[in-house]
Amino acid sequence: MNKKGTLILGVGNPLRRDDGVGTEIINLLIKRNNTHPLPPSVTMVDGGTDGLGLIEYFKEYEKVILIDAVLMGMPPGTVKVFNPDDALFHIGGDSLSTHGFGIPELIKFAKELDVLPDLSIIGIQAENTEYGEGLSKSVKSNIDRILTIIFSLV
C-alpha cells in the first residue's frame, strides 16, 4: 500500500480548555494556509478524542506530527517534542495524554500492528482541562512556538 505524505494531526477536546490545543492548532493552520502555505503533500486533520481510532491515520501516512495537550509534570505551557521511543521511555505506563487511551498505548498498538509511521509528538503541558472553552494564557502564549516547530518538522 502506498502511503500518503505528511499528516498534521491535532487531538483533544476543545470543551475541556487546554485539552483542545491540538484542535486549535489545526484550525489556525487551516486559516493561515493562504498566507503560510504548507506543501501539497501535507494534510491537516482534527483527530478529536478517539485515541484508538487514530491508528487508521498511522496506517495511511508516512509521517505524522501529532499535537496534544499532555501531563508531563512541567510548568503550564511547556512545549516538548517527543519521538515514539522518548514518549514510551519518559512516560512509561503513565498516560501522557489527557485522554483515556493515551499516546503510549497508541504507540505500542501501532508497533504491534507494524503501522507506526515516522512520528513526532508535540506535547503541550496543560494548565486547565476542566470543562469550558478557551485555552489558558500559558498555553495560548506558546502557540507561535508550536507553529514554528510544526513548520520545522514538515
Short synopsis of the structure:
Helix content is 33%, strand content 24%. It is of the alpha/beta class and 154 residues long.
Structure description:
The model is unreliable at 91-96 (pLDDT under 50). The chain has helices at 21-32, 55-60, 84-91, 103-112, 137-140, 143-153, and strands at residues 4-11, 42-48, 61-70, 79-82, 118-125. β1 (4-11), α1 (21-32) and β2 form a beta-alpha-beta unit. The protein is 33% helix and 24% strand. By secondary structure, it is α/β, with parallel strands linked by helices. The radius of gyration is 14 Å and the shape is globular.
Task: Please state the overall shape, judged from the principal axes of the Cα atoms.
Answer: globular
Name the helicity range: 25-40%
Largest sheet: 5 strands, mixed
Quaternary state of this entry equals single chain
Strand content: 15-25%
Distance between the amino and carboxyl termini: 22 Å
Run of helices and strands? EHEHEEHHEHH
Over the alpha carbons, how many angstroms does the gyration radius reach? Answer: 14 Å
What structural category do the secondary elements indicate? alpha/beta
* Sequence stretches where pLDDT stays below 50 over 5 or more residues: 91-96
Overall mean pLDDT score? Answer: 88
Sum up the structure in keywords:
alpha/beta, 33% helix, globular, 5-stranded mixed β-sheet, 154 residues
List the helices and strands and how they pair.
Blueprint: E1 4-11, H1 21-32, E2 42-48, H2 55-60, E3 61-70, E4 79-82, H3 84-91, H4 103-112, E5 118-125, H5 137-140, H6 143-153
Parallel strand pairs: 1-2, 1-3, 3-5
Antiparallel strand pairs: 4-5
